[in-house]
């Protein structure tokens, strides 16, 4: 079993602690949090071992799970990697693209693995259909959330939209050619609602909307490609695939047939792939264990996290 420790015991940090403690792939050695109040409360409530310093925690681990505020990501990652330990780091990977690149270079230099916590890659609705998403040419994503003061220290692009940026980059195999964006600050000092249009070199266009001041929650993405439409509901964990194929000569009476101006007939087929229940955070942590033990590239690599941040920063610059 890999010995794992957690840096940061806030809301998400406590979830990671619980799951690492439950996992059969890891031995949870404990945590460190710079807040005396938080550290004491977590240790007393859950019984996890509390370390007195980051250095002590790192020394006791094979991998370190960084779940601190983004402002501390680079400093923590640097210490973990220089100690020769594997790094799991929450999204966004760092505050700046320069820091993200530095983390990648350090990991390469010290021969350690790194994975970024873009958890939607492990959402069961997305994993049920991502192998069916082939050369999408138009993508639309909406990620809406009710207001929560936690996370408003960063623009909504880094808080919410970056999830969809990473998911889209994972299925569009082309360079980003152009980005345009707009946003509005309503409650926070940084934009609370934003829309971005990402144009890729292969002609694909992605239209992303993110809001943290909505009256209801929504996390949906739709992928349009030749003869197919694929929808993913990340929140409800549902997906749908609608395909069009050449209509048979003798179609069923209940078949849905479309005919274009040239007389070509297409039949529409509906499919709802089975979505298996899972805990996406546990899956991403255990997938990292697989990458370490099998010496493979993590599903969400440091390079992936860096690219998602790079695109996010370009969107923010255009707001």
UniProtKB/TrEMBL annotation:
Gfo/Idh/MocA-like oxidoreductase N-terminal domain location: 3-118
Pfam family name, one = GFO_IDH_MocA_C3
Gene3D superfamilies with a match to the protein in the record: Dihydrodipicolinate Reductase, domain 2, NAD(P)-binding Rossmann-like Domain
Q: Which SUPFAM superfamilies match?
A: Glyceraldehyde-3-phosphate dehydrogenase-like, C-terminal domain, NAD(P)-binding Rossmann-fold domains
Q: Which InterPro entries does the record cross-reference, listed alphabetically?
A: Gfo/Idh/MocA-like_OxRdtase_N, Gfo/Idh/MocA_Oxidoreductases, GFO_IDH_MocA-like_dom, NAD(P)-bd_dom_sf
Which GO terms of the molecular function aspect are on file?
Answer: nucleotide binding
Question: Domain GFO/IDH/MocA-like oxidoreductase: where?
Answer: 156-217
Would you say which domain of life the source belongs to? Bacteria
Task: Give the protein name, as stated in the record.
Answer: Dehydrogenase
**What organism is listed for this UniProt entry?**
Leeuwenhoekiella palythoae
